[in-house]
Amino acid sequence: MEEQGGVRAGGPGARSSATAALARAGAPAIVVADELETRYRSGDTEERVLVLGVLDRIAAEHAAPDLVRSVGIDLVRDALRTNDPRLVAAAMGPFAGRHLGDHDWRHGVVKLVFMGVPLAGVARLDERADDELARMAEDLAEEREAAGRPIPDDLRALLPADASLEKGR
Amino acid sequence: MRIFDPHIHMTSRTTDDYEAMYAAGVRAVVEPAFWLGQPRTGVSSYLDYFDAITGWERFRASQFGIRHHAAIALNPKEANDPRCREVLPELDRYLRRESVVAVGETGYDSMTPEEDEVLETHLDLAKRHGLPVVVHTPHRDKKHGTQRTLDVIANSGIAPELVVLDHLNEVTVDLVAERGCWMGFSIYPDTKMDPQRMVAILQRLGTERMLVNSAADWGRSDPLLTAKTGRAMLEAGFAEAEVDHVLWENPVAFYGQSGRLDVTPLPGFELGGEAELFEGNSILRGAAAVPVTAAAATVTGAN
């Protein structure tokens, strides 16, 4: 959708206009990176979710993706520090699946478990789930069990095959 | 029952909470510096916050008969944001304030190299200022994070009795007990720790070096869970003196190491029945029921 004079800032259609503006940005990487960062930092939560949602496509399409990737990772890490499940879930989309480092990515997955957000939305979960994530999941399940609290299905699915917890519970 | 809540974020709470806390026996609190839910993006919002928890909030608490002290630190999440790390050189002047009885809360969130560095900086600050330090243990990967925290503390050379590791649970408490640090527990409505689980830990490990707090903040939490834990202890057969040890004497001993702690009754609240002063006659309306300073009038004009 083209941004039109009739679109009021903050009004209906303004957010999708912003996304369209990002998609149009076929400009040099530095301009695109700057645009992403400005829109994220100056945006409200919904606008930030949109920016996180277009990161993967923009990084993939741009001819010189390094700078775009680096800004994208900063924004994803910022979103992962929040306590807003919409932002954390959006941060763990396809861009993070492809580019976020293993340590941050694992913490993002476990954070979603804490927030009760379904892991179905985590991009490349099966592919990237490794022994270290399974160890973290097992430790968390041990804490939940010691506390007499239930172990959610998403957490159970991350456990190592030989986990000694009472899996039937 | 007299209660000292050693970890509570009162800037997130209402005056109703202060009234209910006083009625439940709370006479002193420590408010560690914390994040706001919405991440900060720069130093100035940090400094305003430090001023708030050492200034306005301390005053607000005093109007309800509650002694308020603060702990000052850059919190672990924001340690990862270079814009926030700029606050580190500013910490010295806050750690010299009379109202500040500890460094904190510091520790790990995601266990990044940035968090390692900031934790070490905070432990150095605590040593240099001769202050206790409140160390948050992470929600994610807690066992591993607690172990790593203990290693960093040991390497720093700080005396273990100056350190509390907070938000412990059944799995992490033993690691801390054997190192000689204080053990902190945040009693929550449904997650970190509840009163019955807390009682079970006290039955197993005793009451020495144990600190029980509500860690109440802007999330689902309850500033009265310290009192409820005290009642659960009594019901489980602990003596009143043991409850007093955990809920009052222990935090007084821990933060008393700062040499700055004042837990004497506030003027106007010296006698036993002070809570009645509030009944149907909120001090927030500027009632003359308690002696207030001229500045108290500003409480009414909060908006």
Task: Please characterize this protein's 3D structure.
The complex is a heterodimer of chains A (169) and B (303). Chain A has helices spanning 14-24, 29-42, 45-61, 65-80, 85-91, 94-99, 102-115, 125-128, 131-146, 153-158. Chain A has 169 residues and is mainly α. Chain A has a domain at 14-101. In chain A, helix 3 (45-61) runs antiparallel to helix 4. The model of chain A is unreliable at 1-5 (pLDDT under 50). Chain B is 39% helix and 14% strand. Chain B contains twelve helices and eight strands. Chain B has helices at residues 15-24, 43-54, 56-62, 82-85, 91-95, 113-129, 142-156, 173-177, 195-205, 225-235, 240-256, 297-300, and strands at residues 3-5, 26-32, 67-72, 100-107, 133-136, 163-166, 182-186, 210-213. Classes of the chains: A mainly alpha (169), B alpha/beta (303). Chain B: Keywords: Hydrolase, Metal-binding. Chain B: Belongs to the metallo-dependent hydrolases superfamily.
Low-confidence stretches of chain A: 1-5
Mean pLDDT of chain A: 85
Shape of chain B: globular
Q: How does the major sheet of chain B shape up?
A: 8 strands, parallel
- Which range best describes the helical content of chain B: under 10%, 10-25%, 25-40%, 40-55%, 55-70% or over 70%? 25-40%
The topology string of helices and strands of chain A comes to HHHHHHHHHH
The helix-and-strand class of chain A reads mainly alpha
Look at the helices and sheets of chain B and give the structural class: alpha/beta
Unreliable segments of 5+ consecutive residues of chain B: 273-303
Strand/helix succession of chain B: EHEHHEHHEHEHEHEHEHHH
Q: What is the straight-line distance between the termini of chain A?
A: 50 Å
Strand content of chain A: under 5%
CATH superfamily of chain B: Metal-dependent hydrolases
CATH architecture of chain B: Alpha-Beta Barrel
How do the strands line up in the largest sheet of chain B?
1-2-3-4-5-6-7-8
Shape designation of chain A:
elongated
Pfam family, one (chain B): TatD_DNase
Organism (chain B): Agromyces bracchium
Protein name (chain B): Hydrolase TatD
Family (chain B): Belongs to the metallo-dependent hydrolases superfamily.
